[in-house]
Write a structure and sequence with these properties.
Layout: H1 2-10, H2 13-23, H3 29-41, H4 48-53, H5 61-75, H6 84-98, H7 102-112, H8 116-121, H9 135-144
Helix pairs in contact: 1-2, 2-3, 6-7, 7-9
Amino acid sequence: MRQAKRLLHRGAIDELVAAIDQLAVGRRAKDINEHRDYFVRNKARMQYAAFRAARVPTGSGAIESAVRRVINMRMKSNGMFWLEVNAEGMLLLRSYLKADRLDALVDWSLAAGVSWWHNHAAGALMPSTPLVANTANDAEMARAA
């Protein structure tokens, strides 16, 4: 098991699959192969060495903590009730604010000639990925839409 963890954390998925193949004999081969196939199917996602080099956390603890702080503590106070669409809008605003991209959201909204919350409430996707696209690209895409 330690060897499998080391291979996984090194990003050596092919070696890990080969090690699993050696275990897949006898009655349990079918069950083992089902688990083996998970690693084969998700190889592209299992770039733990690259994640570690980029200092990206791979555990769920940071996400769970953020959900607890942002959603539970800030949006679920006594007497607070949110419609789902309003809560999603508030979280979208907060994500833009925290990513220092609030100006991009306002620029996109003005260029599109429609308020961002109207589009969001209608279930329409904005014309660019919120945290990746640049402001010039947002405005250009809004004009094309």
